[in-house]
């Protein structure tokens, strides 16, 4: 596996705005030396210095890691302010979006480093897909029962149960009941295309 600083530049990295002015200020606000921040981010001090001086552009996974370390959001790293977006999302404005058999309702403001969704997972949908991607996920079961596979361990969650895990842990989500399952879902996914998150179908069941 390559280190974050060895990632080749791609379309996503090229699309990231200049963030150098914010990076150094936010590191200092977090009271971190260049060496300490670089070590926590899995970068060399020289590479982080080049990011802070604008000689290199960070990839989106780098931004996510630095935002965590500095106790901020990717939006702030990009120079956006909270005032740029509404803080409240009204139920009437939550338009459903269908993808891969699941139905999503946006439950948070767009363009932030964290995305909140209400999700309906039908029975038998996407059960053979393993997801692995940078970030964290938190989910809360509203209705129904959910079978969650994290690595080699399977968990059965009922209404009122929740899970919070590192998204680099291979995970699968399956509705246990025929009527499906309703979830609240929060993740730090950075608008990556679904295809980039999936390792593909696996064989065998989830037991």
What does this structure look like?
The protein has 207 residues and is α+β, with helices and mostly antiparallel strands. Helices cover 24% and strands 28% of the residues. The chain contains seven helices and eleven strands. The chain has helices at residues 11-15, 20-29, 34-41, 45-52, 60-70, 74-77, 194-197, and strands spanning 96-99, 102-106, 115-121, 129-131, 136-143, 146-150, 153-157, 162-166, 171-175, 181-187, 198-201. The strands form three sheets. Strands 1-2-3-10-5-8 form a six-stranded antiparallel β-sheet, with no helix packed on it. A three-stranded antiparallel β-sheet has the order 7-6-9, with no helix packed on it. A hairpin with an 8-residue loop joins β2 (102-106) and β3. The longest helix has 11 residues, at 60-70. It is elongated and about 55 Å long. The chain starts with 10 loop residues before the first helix and ends in a 6-residue tail after the last strand. The model is unreliable at 1-17 and 190-207 (pLDDT under 50).
